[in-house]
Amino acid sequence: MIVNNSLDEVKKRExxxxxxxxxxxxxxxxxxxxVTGLSGGFIASKKELELLExxxxxxxxxxxxxxxxxxxxxxxxxxxxxxxxxxxxxxxxALVGEGSHVAHFLADYPGHPSIPRSCxxxxxxxxxxxxxxxxxxxxxxxxxxxxxxxMDLQVIDEDLFTQVISxxxxxxxxxxxxxxxxxxxxxxxxxxxxATDLGxxxxxxxxxxxxxxxxxxxxAGRAELxxxxxxxxxxxGLEAQPPLIMAMINGIKAYTPEVLRKSVSRKEEFYGLIxxxxxxxxxxxxxxxxxxxxxxxxxxxxxxxxxxxxKDCCFLWSMVLLKEEGIITIPAVGMPGASDTIRFDLSTKDxxxxxxxxxxxxxxxxxxxxxxxxxxxxxxxxxxxxxE
Amino acid sequence: MIVNNSLDEVKKRExxxxxxxxxxxxxxxxxxxxVTGLSGGFIASKKELELLExxxxxxxxxxxxxxxxxxxxxxxxxxxxxxxxxxxxxxxxALVGEGSHVAHFLADYPGHPSIPRSCxxxxxxxxxxxxxxxxxxxxxxxxxxxxxxxMDLQVIDEDLFTQVISxxxxxxxxxxxxxxxxxxxxxxxxxxxxATDLGxxxxxxxxxxxxxxxxxxxxAGRAELxxxxxxxxxxxGLEAQPPLIMAMINGIKAYTPEVLRKSVSRKEEFYGLIxxxxxxxxxxxxxxxxxxxxxxxxxxxxxxxxxxxxKDCCFLWSMVLLKEEGIITIPAVGMPGASDTIRFDLSTKDxxxxxxxxxxxxxxxxxxxxxxxxxxxxxxxxxxxxxE
Lengths: 388, 388
Prior knowledge:
2 copies of one chain form a homodimer.
Chain A: H1 6-26, E1 33-34, H2 46-51, H3 57-73, E2 77-81, H4 84-95, E3 101-105, H5 114-122, E4 125-129, E5 141-147, H6 158-170, E6 175-178, H7 182-189, E7 202-206, E8 217-221, H8 223-235, H9 242-254, H10 257-275, E9 281-284, E10 287-290, H11 292-301, H12 310-325, E11 327-328, H13 330-333, E12 342-345, H14 356-373, H15 377-384
Parallel strand pairs in A: 1-11, 3-4, 3-5, 5-6, 6-7
Antiparallel strand pairs in A: 2-8, 7-8, 9-10, 10-12
Helix pairs in contact in A: 1-12, 3-9, 4-5, 4-8, 7-10, 11-12, 12-14, 12-15
């Protein structure tokens, strides 16, 4: 075993940073390809950066996010928050009274944990439903939540979506849609309408998911409800700060449904290509991945023996991908305890326009080097704890 | 009454932003003078901004804030949060159980509203003390809070500070210091020690107060407690995002106690000048202020009658200062529940080098307009809820 504990993982991560720094200095940013899909965007002009002062920036950016945000999400008013979870907390604190109930409909279990956690904080009961025939709204319900697309990107059926909204509105209960990635996945790929156009009173989306914005949340909906939520947001420090709002505006402006649709069709194409050669790949909604066990199995198929653990194999290949090809994946740069699954998100700006044959070449080359190193434990260890 | 509740305060704040935007567009940034003392900054190099785009940036900044933050605040571990209020909420959610008690010692009433609000959310009782002889820590106390310097910048006596900590520690109760501006005011101007050096278990400071950082909060303290708080921070989306962390690092690096001290001597000079004409001004550690009651008294001295409440008078003058002279004070742009004291912080970069006679002219002009409007309720309301 090379990477044995958290301290080793920290060392591995630092080693990945040294390699990234080396590539940045020697070859430049163009030779790095971040496919983690977790980096978040931060598009900013020089003029905008000068405006970023506590009480001047907001005046400009809060105005513009109203226009840009309403175009993206619909609704009467927009509210930028520090994260989708923060927006959900504020909504629950504003609308869900102690002893009331929250009913949540979604395509598949589980809902995002911030929803039941916020309900518990408010002293409200909470129930999740994935079957419309079982969906129940007791009389003490104060809020109905719909998840547009789950954490694993499973999308809700649009008919069920409108049915749930009708049922809630019959009882005059407001509907919040957790449309973290759904605001784009549902509309761009599944041709569904925006949540507010389907009648939702409130919607919240994550500005870093499937769009080039910063980590953050953007709410929209009925002005009267947004105003109530905004009070809680301001009271507890949940609002997005000016630098984030600025980057949200630019992220939304830079987002195009075409790019998202393109990454979905490119994923299919790339999966088709790469599966001819390897058994280890699986699809994700907008890319491909190799899990620990599948990587180990691929080695068996190739009759290659190694003293390395399955986890070490993931770390090693991830470091080879970085050092040889400049491809940044989570096992190389992740915090201790992060997943060791090697994911290639094809919607990130570094690879969205890359020729798929070129990408496959890079993966092939790195995999050949990996197959060699996997049998040379000392050299593998040297790479994982890279120090020039 | 014009501003009656939190919703009105939100609308008033939005109205101030519209005026700021109008001045920016019509006259430019040089015609705005932010004397809130909250006008932090967003210092960023081109290289750092490029790093924000990749997975590398966040990782690098999170490492660096540990080093820079510990130098500024002491403690074993640092935790950057979206706002001081968000850090207080997370601390209360992590450490304060339902049915327990929070005791808060401060130089003068009231404590920041986020503290009692967070306690109410956790189902805990809460009491504030300004007299050490009355300070009580019942047996069910789960947290003791000390405010280093109040919203109106009244600083706690260092002896009382350590007494409160000793009393809490005798009962094994952790102490959180709300050192929003105090972390700098207490140390640079009052020669006090850092909160952690005085024995506090936790401290939180605002990175935009009396330093050129972004709006945000920085916590430090015992690693074991910080880890518990970090869980709540991540669960509810309260953490500072990478662009904020980057600007916090640069803000702390750019902070110099000397600038803060210079503003102290300018304050003495300006107070001497302006007190010849008005009775309402009082000194703050780095500027001057007018409190609600003193503004009302000034009106009486001038024999001017008004139907407006004392609070509305503060909001009105603050809006006139903004609209007529471009002077940004907290009552105009503050969050709901913020102090309605009109403070002129002389250490902000917009006025640190301004001729004091020019500043007095601006204050005189705005006050004349205010004296007129205070007798015309409808026009006053129109200005407070300004909408072209």
